[in-house]
Design a protein that fits this description.
Number of helices: 11
Bound molecules: nicotinamide-adenine-dinucleotide, thymidine-5'-diphospho-beta-D-xylose
CATH class of one domain: Alpha Beta
CATH topology of one domain: Rossmann fold
CATH superfamily of one domain: NAD(P)-binding Rossmann-like Domain
Oligomer: single chain
Strand content: 5-15%
Distance between the termini: 34 Å
Shape: globular
Length: 327
């Protein structure tokens, strides 16, 4: 798999170790978003970590020759970064995916592509429809457009070259080991260091939250039983606006619900994401295990309280970057 030192990738590695007998090789470049500590302590006979770039055709080819299934998580993943410097998004998300597809094509390997609901653009707050596998692509940011491009490459490699691939598009994940640049960890760790949380604009934007372990169980199910060439949307009916989530973080942490600052909004900020995951549930019998967002969030708060050594080294530089941007 790729990107196993990042947030969702590392949760997937832990999930595989805890729930299967699979042996995993992680290919990760250890960008600012990769963290060795996220994979520390895992059994050496189950997990091998290779430091390398998915754009490096030689290393990719060598590893894929020895792999049964490739699950591709590695990406430049942060919208705000993509608005300030899109180039790494093109390299990793587009050229990196192309490099993997060429290798799985050469070696005839099964490939699963991890993507996002952001490829579909956004919905109005009162739209009764949610995203489905048939929603037209309409990405808004450099990040989401490169993820959309990578999905389309996968579809083309399936159709033109018969690559054995599936795609999943998941909604916003929360849980342990998420970088402090992202919304939920940023606010939790701001409170822990004595800063005020920062809400973009009015905070009415809606995200459809899912626990990272539910994302992992869905991906495993698709790898085991998904139909080749198909796309599956992954979501857990977790729609909440940013203001609600922030107020919940504050009250969970014993702070007044209004103890935050409004900061400048994200340009092109998507208003609402919402996933209809009926296909995955009906066809593959998948169900999310985390039904209670408040409890999952409280456990995530506890994780950041207990793992300051994991996030503290990145905190000051992340906030300095946000301050420069007025956020
Ligand atoms: P992340 O930024 O936390 O981790 C990305 C990982 O990829 C890091 O370990 C990084 O070192 C690695 N990486 C980056 N460029 C690389 C390269 N060129 N070669 C090898 N490794 C490289 O990201 P995340 O939030 O865990 O997201 C993982 C995947 O899930 C991405 O494909 C993302 O688009 C998708 N996704 C994320 C969410 C979410 O809520 N975070 C939701 C849906 C889909
Ligand atoms: O400080 C903040 N204040 C704030 O109000 C930050 C960092 C974010 N926000 C808002 C912007 C979004 O509406 O919170 C929401 C969530 O922001 P992010 O954590 O940056 O996530 P988002 O842009 O929704 O994208 C995430 O979900 C889809 C992941 O980062 C992507 O990789 C994934 O594809």
């Amino acid at each position: 798999m790729t990107g196993g030192a990042g947030f969702i990738g590392s949760n997937f590695v832990h999930y595989l170790v805890d729930n299967t007998d699979d042996v995993v090789t992680v290919l990760d470049k250890f960008t600012y978003a990769g963290n060795e500590a996220s994979l520390a302590g895992l059994p050496e006979d189950r997990v091998t970590v290779v430091r390398g770039d998915i754009c490096d055709a030689e290393v990719v080819d060598r590893l894929i020759a020895d792999t049964d299934v490739v699950v591709h998580y590695a990406a430049e993943s942060h919208n705000d970064n993509s608005l300030h410097d899109p180039r790494p998004f093109l390299d990793t998300n587009i050229v990196g995916t192309y490099t993997l597809l060429e290798a799985v094509r050469r070696h005839g390997k099964r490939y699963h592509h991890i993507s996002t609901d952001e490829v579909y653009g956004d919905l109005e707050l009162d739209d009764p429809e949610r995203f489905t596998e048939r929603t037209p692509y309409n990405p808004s940011s450099p990040y989401s457009s490169t993820k959309a491009g990578s999905d389309l490459l996968v579809r083309a490699w399936v159709r033109s070259f018969g690559v054995q691939a599936t795609i999943s598009n998941c909604s916003n994940n929360y849980g342990p080991r998420q970088h402090v640049e992202k919304f939920i960890p940023r606010q939790i760790t701001n409170i822990l260091v004595g800063d005020r949380p920062k809400l973009y604009g009015e905070g009415l934007n809606v995200r459809d939250w899912i626990h990272a372990d539910d994302h992992s169980s869905a991906v495993l199910r698709i790898v085991e039983a998904g139909r080749i060439g198909e796309t599956y949307l992954i979501g857990a009916d977790g729609e909440k606006n940013n203001k609600e989530v922030l107020e919940l973080i504050l009250t969970t942490m014993g702070q007044p619900a209004d103890a935050y600052d409004h900061v400048v909004d994200r340009p092109g900020h998507d208003l609402r994401y919402a996933i209809d995951s009926a296909k995955l549930r009906d066809e593959l019998g998948w169900l999310p295990a985390f039904q209670d967002f408040e409890r999952g969030l409280a456990a995530t708060v506890d994780w950041y309280r207990e793992n300051e050594a994991w996030w503290q080294p990145q905190k000051a530089a992340t906030e300095a970057k946000y301050r420069e941007q007025g956020q």
